[in-house]
Amino acid sequence: MSKRVEVAAGVIFGGDGRFLLGQRAPDTFYAGYWEFPGGKVEPGESPADALVRELDEELGIRVRVLRPWITREHLYEHAHVRLHFFEVADWEGELRDHVHSALSWEPVDAPEVGPMLPANGPILKALRLPRWMGITHATDIGVARQLELLDAALASGLRLVQVREPGMGASDLCAFAAAVVKRARPRGALVVVNGNAELAAEVGADGVHLSAAQLAGLEARPALEWVGASCHTRAELERAAGFGLDYAVLGAVLPTATHPGQPTLGWERFAELVGGLPMPVLALGGLRRADMERARAAGAHGIAAIRASWDQS
Ligand SMILES: Nc1nc2c([nH]c(=O)n2[C@H]2C[C@H](O)[C@@H](COP(=O)(O)OP(=O)(O)OP(=O)(O)O)O2)c(=O)[nH]1
């Protein structure tokens, strides 16, 4: 078995939300394939240091804000690589490429260039996961009010909804989930249904969100495009990763009004728990819009919330 090579790679965002890909030069492995700028971690360097150095050497840019994101391993014919992906949220300098055949700024939802390096498929899927998940609570506020607030949130840019209605009867839930899908679809928003893969498929939702108890008893990944799970511990996060789930939700980070008295993690513990995972993790629990920077600095992909998603103030 070949030695493991540590690699740092950056998702570099431009001002318009597009991200940068580079085409590998002739005379390299996978010449002509597209990759995220980056390179090997040198002895004594942290992956973050390596990325800052590589982006300076390769592209002539200076990183201003770097956020840890996800880590994936891949076995190539030539090497076993561990890829540490970071988001380069802010940078300065003029882009001058020294190593690629071409560069391209790509839209997050549908990158157009190809082929992509084989390890990068799940990375592109993770980039498509929206940064904010709105979790419904129609059981508390009423179906009509929830749908009204959903319309307003979709109009303001919400692109990921979790239908979660623990107290609702089966036929009402089916009708409610179908109504959410009907509203979300024209906006290009994803819908996942909590706890019920059959219902998700029946109403044409994009996926299922498993409870921690369902994750504990899971035997195989449900056959839906998006599958995520609620987690509270590192063991649960690793189990979710082991089934190839697309995302996890981890909390509670801060105290919440909906689950008073529940133990909280805080951002430091959150950052420790999500380090090195291969899938994006959304932070949950008492979070508001203003917490997004803090969440992403701690390694979260974004935020999942009940109240703050429907709050119109
Ligand atoms: N930079 C980068 N490397 C990636 C990505 N995806 C992926 O599988 N890799 C792999 C390809 C390479 O095996 C390794 C990156 O190493 P590298 O670019 O420094 O070096 P290389 O293999 O081209 O060759 P060399 O430096 O030994 O000449 O990580 C990605 O998105 N960006």
TrEMBL record:
Identification of the protein by name: 8-oxo-dGTP diphosphatase
Residues in Nudix hydrolase domain copies: 2-131
Enzyme Commission code(s) on record: 3.6.1.55
Pfam family, one: TMP-TENI
Keywords assigned by UniProt, alphabetized: DNA damage, DNA repair, DNA replication, Hydrolase, Magnesium, Metal-binding, Mutator protein
UniProt-listed Gene3D superfamilies: Aldolase class I, Nucleoside Triphosphate Pyrophosphohydrolase
Family: Belongs to the Nudix hydrolase family.
PANTHER family xrefs: 8-OXO-DGTP DIPHOSPHATASE, NUDIX HYDROLASE FAMILY PROTEIN
Organism of provenance: Aromatoleum evansii (Azoarcus evansii)
GO molecular function: hydrolase activity
InterPro entries for this protein: Aldolase_TIM, MutT-like, Nudix_hydrolase, NUDIX_hydrolase-like_dom_sf, NUDIX_hydrolase_CS, NUDIX_hydrolase_dom, ThiamineP_synth_sf, ThiamineP_synth_TenI
Names of required cofactors: Mg(2+)
Reactions performed catalytically: 8-oxo-dGTP + H2O = 8-oxo-dGMP + diphosphate + H(+); 8-oxo-GTP + H2O = 8-oxo-GMP + diphosphate + H(+)
